[in-house]
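Dear Dr. L.,

I hope this message finds you well. Following up on our conversation about the binding site, I have prepared a predicted three-dimensional model of the protein together with zinc ion. For your records, I am including the exact sequence and ligand specification that went into the calculation, followed by the structure tokens. Please feel free to forward this to your student if that is useful.
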Amino acid sequence: YGLNALSNRSYKVILRRTGKDELLTVEDESYVFRDLHPGAVYLYEAESYVVEDLDLEEKIVRILRADVEFYTQSLKHTEITPLDKQAQGKTGPNKDIEKFYGRVKVEHEYYSYKVIDTISQEIISRHPLENIPIIEFETQAVWFTIPFELQKELELEGFDLGGTIHAIEHAMIAMAPALAQISRWDLGGVSIDFDTVKQQPIIYIYDAYRGGIGISEQLYFNLFELLNLSFKLIESCSCKSSNGCPVCIMSPKCGNNNDPLDKEGALFLLNKLLDAK
Ligand SMILES: [Zn+2]
Ligand SMILES: [Zn+2]
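The resulting structure of the complex is given below.
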């Protein structure tokens, strides 16, 4: 790698060995802060490594070769701010789902990570993450509000609002590949139970790449279809837990540890959103 080819967001990943160090590869900071923090397990070309040190000043990650039977997953807090609206409309049989498409600013703050046993998938330990800078990028998103009436009904029925919209967000991301040529890893999501501007719950789905790659726009135009598919996904899953399961509303990439989730609440709310009054 020529130094000139490195953007100012690139980190050199250096393998520490007795005798000499070796430049293994280069990774973008968005990946580094999530998956190459100190203590993280890094998989590269079928070999496993453990991160020894993350040097923010020099933009270097130092790793050691290690055969381990665990992997790591970081947890994050995400802030999302709409920057403009390029389209807006209403959808659903009652035209009560207000939807938007536009540019947003996304900020991720990684605050902790879990060590998970590769075989049993059990959590072995949890660790705080300190001094990891906040990642900030602009991208495209589709978002929509939950009508106040329906929020009221949901809460009167005793469902958890936060868990309900978080579950819907996960189901939408799980089903989006049925509508666009993507994988769920190409999208991120944020569900907000009280937006201070709109004074309503909002679900955001955004392109997980700087600048965006056009997925959100497609989803904006197919939002009703996506909500329908999400309902079918959850309804057809026979799991009995209120947190759902990995087939329906649990996400392998949730930055909030799949908490809270309310499967029955999601079915109740989606049913209200999708059915004509
Ligand atoms: Zn399930
Ligand atoms: Zn989540």
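In brief: Residues 237, 239, 244-245, 247-248 surround zinc ion (ligand 1) (CB under 6 Å).

With kind regards,
A. P.
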